[in-house]
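User: Can you predict the 3D structure for this chain?
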Amino acid sequence: MTQNNPARITRIVLADDHDILRQGLTLLLQAQADMRVVGEARNGLEAIKLVQEQRPDIVVMDISMAQLDGLEACERIRALAPGTQVLMLTMHESEEYFLQSLKKGAAGYIVKKAAPTELCNAVRTIAQGGAFLYPGLAKALIRAYVAPQSSPEQPGSLPPQRAELDKALQTLTAREMEVLKLVAEGSTNQEIADKLVISIKTVQAHRSNMMEKLGLHDITQLVRFALHYGLISPQI
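Assistant: Here is the predicted structure, written as structure tokens:
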């Protein structure tokens, strides 16, 4: 039985200065029925040029690159092409790099030691309007919000309408609340699906509905929201 073609193809630019790794990632992503690599870049400047030419949905980008690093390139790409999301793919399992990436506008952060399936899941999550955090790094985001000396430079902020948020919270279903807590704690879609015994597609639907109801736009706002309402614990 032949599988139907997906309704939408996610167009991707890959940016990494290691040719063998970049070419391997291209083969991996091109093998997915719902993904297409439309360009490869060896540094941040090339990535920006490709984004301007191709207007991809997602840039999968390394942090450490010559001429222009991934963090600076991410910030420029988000300013030049707001419709293009950035997924940082890096060897640095570092809280500092992770938080900097979010401040620069990245929609996801994953380390190179992750399994190929995790990278594909990250791309799909971001393509569907979500955010992807490598497991464990969500704790760094929580720490950033509960630090004694918080600063306005921390990534993300909650919308100011407290009464509207209170009302919106009441519209969430019990399942959406479960998904909200697990996402805020840093669980991947697959981990949530396994824990709740539902499909990944159902998890993605709950995530999308929950974010829309709450008027939140990224994972940083979601974590802040969950902390504010006591849905997750700052004690980590």
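Residues 200-214 form the longest helix (15 residues). The beta strands are 10-15, 35-41, 58-61, 85-90, 108-111, 132-133.
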